[in-house]
Amino acid sequence: MKLEKKVSITDIARKVGVSVALVSYVMNGREKEKRVSAEMVKKIRQAAEELNYQPNQIARSLRLGSTKTIGLLVADIANPFFGQFARIVEDESFKAGYTVVFGSSDEDDVKSAFVLDTLLNRQVDGLIIIPSQGSVRQIRDLIKRKKPFVLFDRYFQDVNCNYIILDNFKATYTATRHLIAKGHRKIGLVAYKTSLIHMKERIRGYREALKEAGLEHSKYLAEIKFSHSFRDFENSFRSFINRHSDIEALLCANNGLSISSLYYASQNCIRIPEGIDFIGFDGGEPFDLYSTPLSYVRQPIEEMGREVVKLLTELMNDSSKVSHIMHDPELVIREGRDC
Amino acid sequence: MKLEKKVSITDIARKVGVSVALVSYVMNGREKEKRVSAEMVKKIRQAAEELNYQPNQIARSLRLGSTKTIGLLVADIANPFFGQFARIVEDESFKAGYTVVFGSSDEDDVKSAFVLDTLLNRQVDGLIIIPSQGSVRQIRDLIKRKKPFVLFDRYFQDVNCNYIILDNFKATYTATRHLIAKGHRKIGLVAYKTSLIHMKERIRGYREALKEAGLEHSKYLAEIKFSHSFRDFENSFRSFINRHSDIEALLCANNGLSISSLYYASQNCIRIPEGIDFIGFDGGEPFDLYSTPLSYVRQPIEEMGREVVKLLTELMNDSSKVSHIMHDPELVIREGRDC
DNA sequence: CTGAAAGCGCTTACAG
DNA sequence: CTGAAAGCGCTTACAG
Questions:
Q1: Distance A97 CA to C6 C1' (A)
Q2: Does the nearest atom of strand D lie within 7 Å of A19's Cβ?
Q3: Are residues A294 and A307 in the same domain?
């Protein structure tokens, strides 16, 4: 028995001596509705089994105009935060009968456009997008084409579309207040230099908390240019730290920056919390294994991921509503352990 | 200008007043070969531009019998090791004109079969698979169907197919010898209980090194049942550690086990390397940020990832050869720092 | 240099 | 209860 060429509905029809319509009906479980005789059903099922028939989704997609595929555009799938997110998206999508195609933008709008085009040509039914800086036009285009999508993690203020994000202001506001309450006065924020709203909001939350407490709110803000290279981060961060050797506590504005800052600290013998107190973003294994328990801002990523897929599937079905959903962050406080 | 329904090659043909064949030729850059007049080419290009034409890959795929899509079946995309691998696969695939669809098996053969079927129905041109225990039949089926694929990380001894793996024996053999050379005698290995060859080989490498040194080679071997829950790991590991309080050094057989063991150690005030010496697997951020520099077995994952895609693209083109490629591990030794 | 037409594998009105 | 046929959007021999 060799299976050189794949078997189609036509092969089954021929074998049973019946039309392809019948086969299509029973393969799609519509034999009741179409009142196919029990005998036929049995014969067709058996033939399909014997020939080891596998439906061709591509042909089905072309005919139906729907691929049952979701496109996922992340900044970088190798980043644990996005990897975790991708996993949730995958699980929920599969449950809903969708498959997921992904691509990484590297926070670069040219690459983002390329990946987006590729996914669109593949006729994805909908998209989940972590938009990168400068990708507004791409998003606008999606709206014009009436392609369902939901933004995650960030959005654009002047584009009215679906998004699910963290309450970023509250995240850093709460964290900063916590540091102030602990008695710190010289509190730094390590953020990325970007026009993206999530960063802007995180910076605003930090500043607002400092202002309310009557503290310096610009001096200790490090806005670092995005780069995949630790060297680049290191150079910027070193000059920041050297300029402000009196800094008492550090808050980081996302996961990558937290990891890089911690790495810098451990390489440069800066002790936490004795030397500098610290609050990170997003948690993860590096946080759990750090020499001292680290506090961090937690995003309810499971819920958010589930909700993104839920919203998108709704959009792919009726496509009229526009939701802006914001989730509350949680400040996870961890204190020194006794060993 | 609204773009309700997507524009097709037919729309362009109609607009220019020409046949669809011409349009197809110029859209595929075959105007030279087909000697389309320069004037036509210009008109068609312009019309495509004006109508904002986007080719429909699905239709193209159906016609050509190739989707330019690679299926990636990993154990868990949220696992940083696989996330990193996925990123390399993504980059190389895009470069080669392929898009990637993925799914996680959770090391479960039922889930693996389901994901595999989904990807196959989507008519992927080829597959990259981290095979889970009990998925031999699925792999055999792929061969029977002549679907190009390459296994990564593991393989099955009695199935002759393409794979790219680490020299697993050498990995643990070298690491164990290093621990012996440091003077340790009671050396433990934390491994998963599985029939998968990569684990078997890692265990064999460990044992062989101990045997050669005339040391106990079974007593300190922990074979732990795979689970996503840390609690499960903790229970098994605790009883192992309690039974062997005299253990001097620990080697871990993969990334997940390394992280879990380190977490257990930090939770239970076991100091590394003073209490127990340690060598992990695969490295990563948790390793870099650990309170003390950790040694580990490094896989050349970038090279391996690139090679997997290269091999697969070759297979998708001629499909005759069978390669078994094994990469050398590298033992990364890191000593205490001075702060 | 250009066009008419078949066909990839499926679904689905429309007849009977 | 079942079949013949159109059509999804594309590519590609085959004519001319």
A1: 34
A2: yes
A3: no
